[in-house]
Amino acid sequence: MASRSSTRSTGATRGAKRPSRTRKTAGSAAKPTMQRPSSGISRIDQPSRRTHGYFVRLDYRKTPAGYRPRLTSFFGDATHGGRKAAWQAAETWLAKMRKTLKKKSAA
Known about the structure:
By secondary structure, the protein is an alpha+beta fold. It has two helices and three strands. The chain has a domain of 74 residues.
C-alpha cells in the first residue's frame, strides 16, 4: 500500500499568491454609475406607458399596511433632458435628502 504525503500538491499555482476575497463594506462601496446607481435608486423603463426614468425611495417607515418609503421622487428622462441628466438629478436629490435627514435626526 502506497503512503500519501501529508502536503497537498498545488500544481501550476505553486508559489503564486491567490487574490484575496474580501467583501466590500458599505463604507468602501464603489462610486455610483448609471449602470449601478446608489442604493434607493431604481431605473424604470416601461414603453407601454411611455415611462422612462429613475425612481428614488428613501427612509422607510412602518404603516398599518406594511413598510412604506417616507420620501419618494421620480426623475424622468424627458423632463431632465436625457437618461444621464435624470440619473445625475436623482443622485443629487438623494444626497441632499440624506443630508437633511441626518441633520434632523441629530437635532
